[in-house]
Structures are given as structure tokens and as C-alpha cells.
Amino acid sequence: MKALTFRNVLTELDALGEKLRHAASQVESDRHRALSCLEDELLYTIAYIGIPTEFIPFRQWDYQACHYSDHIDMLEYLSRFDASGLMMLPGASLSARAVTTLGTPEQQAFFFSRFAHPPCWAFFAVTEPEVGSDTQSIASSLTPTDDGYVLHARKKFIGGAQLASVGLVFAREGHFQRLVMVEPEQAASHMTITPLQQFGLQGSNLTEIEINGLPVTPEHILGYDRKGLNQGLVALGHVFERHRPMVSAMALGTAYGLLKVLDNTALTPDQQRWRAQQWRTYHLLRQQLSDIAERYQSGQSHYHTTSQLKRHCTLFVEMVAHRMPHLLSEQAWLEDAPLRRRCRDALAFEYMEGTANIHLMNSFRCYTARGGVCAHVY
After folding, report:
1. What is the pTM of this model?
2. Tens-digit pLDDT profile for residues 326-350
3. Which domains occur in the chain, in start order?
4. Could you give phi then psi for residue 222, rounded to 5 degrees?
5. Is the preceding omega at residue 119 within 30 degrees of 0, hence cis?
């Protein structure tokens, strides 16, 4: 068995990145064909990081050796080729952390057993059309009945639901927050999944989900015996905190790819100085990302630093993307459709795992809670 580390897969990542690039170029016209471009065991192996090892079919790799920093390094490197293609890959995504944190052994087996037959997707539905991801204002409801519950929910901007065989839906049961396991195929008569039009990161396949009167048993409610905040909000916090550095990694990888294009472009002296400054910024943010990943691995993560980094990385990649058409010749810009698409993708990271205002508030709260220690937010 080979250790699944960044160092051990590095020599394969360039070839995998080209597959991501090819898939992303197909997704706007033929999603089925795009998905077929990703049929690669090592790509699936990386996509399954975070799923409990007993449910992973790729036995030649030692997932226990894969540290969080290894995963971050893989995501950043592959995003240099195409982050949209990366987001098309199967896997449990955000759901895995919540299920492993709150689920009983029986619930984990129910949720993860299907991943033994790849490819398999899952979704995580929190955001709502009217209130976004504000968990205090969520309208989706889980109502008690004589023989269980019924679920009513309307969720928006949910990735991967069209392909998913299982997912989690965040809803309220009175004053409690609940995460409900839902199987779209079995819930088809109560559930509609509608694809949304997207401008960037089309590989995420965002959808709107509507659930009306879906019968639910307690066995499908994560942490059913746990009450209060520990059941819902804390679990969500852990999920998002773990995922935000991954978004930062994808944003930085995208910025790296754009800057490499400029390395092969004739620039004026002023433009060369600007490019050099952006490379310095990239390396600074990349080091901060590595530091956060190491702290997370050792159990010393800080909620506000993940928010700060996500905010800085999304601002950085947006700035580089906005600058690209002004640095390339008109012909080079107009003839490079994949580059234009990646610049569009760069603007979509802002909406992943919390918009800028959320992260500014997270950082400010830490600033005040720590007695005025500078959070260095801009």
C-alpha cells in the first residue's frame, strides 16, 4: 500500500490537470462527455479524500497517511489547470465531515456505503433563496408526525445534486437545527432538482432543490439524540472551517495558472513590475495557506484566520483576472476561450463558503473577542 501524499502523486498531477482542463472545456456543451473525461482512478482517489477508509474501494492507497496539508497541496496544484474541472469530480464534499462528526456507525454506513462503487456524488444543502446561509433564519422545516417527520425545504446554489445519490439537508425542528439524510432517487415524488444558469465555475453544477412533504424517520436525522447547538450549528462550523482553506487553495491555483500565462506574454517594464508583485503576493498567500493547513492538521485551527485567508485569496484572484484582458493583445484574448472561461471562474470563488461580508464579520468578531488583537482585514 502506497502513502497517499502530495509527494507521492506529484509526478502524476500534470496529466491529471490536463484531464481537468479538457473536461472543463466540454461541460458547457456536453456535461456527460465532460464527466467521461474524468474517468481516472487516481482522480477518483483524490476526490474520495475525507470519506472513511472502510468505504473507499481504492485499496492500493493509504489514506491514513494523507494529511490535510497534502490534500490542500493537491487541490492547489490541480486548480492551476482548471478549478471548474476539479469541482466536477465525485465525492462526498462537505457532507463527509458532518456525517463522520454527527452520524452513528449505522448512519455512516448508510451514507458512505454507496461510495464503494465509484463514481458517486453527494450534496450538502444549507443555503436558501431568501436568507442565504444564515442558519438562524433558515425556513426549511422538519415537522413531527405520528410516525416520524415530514421535511419541507427550498434550497439554492447546491452543487452536485443532479448526480448525487445521497445528500444532507439543513432544516429546523422547532428550536433545534437538524441535518437530514436524503436520497434523491427514493425521494423523487417529493423532490425537484432544477439546474441554475451559471457564469463561472460551471463544473460545480449548481441547482435549486425543493422538497415538499418528504417522510423522514429518526434514523435519517444525524445526531438525533443530541439536542441544541451541538447538533447543528457547531457541526456546520466544523464543515465550513475545513472547507474554506480548500476554496482558498482553488483560488490560488487559478491565480497561479493566470500568472503563468503572463510569464509567456511580452509585457512593458511597468507591466513586468506589476506581474512580479503579483507573484510575490501569490507566494505570501500560499505560505499562509500552508501554515493554516499545518495548524488544522495539529488541531490548532483558528476560525478567523480561515475567513481572512479566504477573503484575501478571492480578492487576489479577482484582481489578476480583471487585469488579464488589459495585459494581453486583443487577438490573444479573443482567441483563447479557455483563458476567458478561467477568468470568469475566478470571479465565482467569492460566493463559495461564504461571501466577503461573512468573512469580514468573522474576522471582526475575533478582533473584538481577543481584546483588539489586529485581525489585519482589508
Report:
1. 0.91
2. 999 999 999 999 999 999 999 999 8
3. 2-89 (no CATH), 122-227 (2.40.110.10), 233-369 (1.20.140.10)
4. -65, 135
5. yes
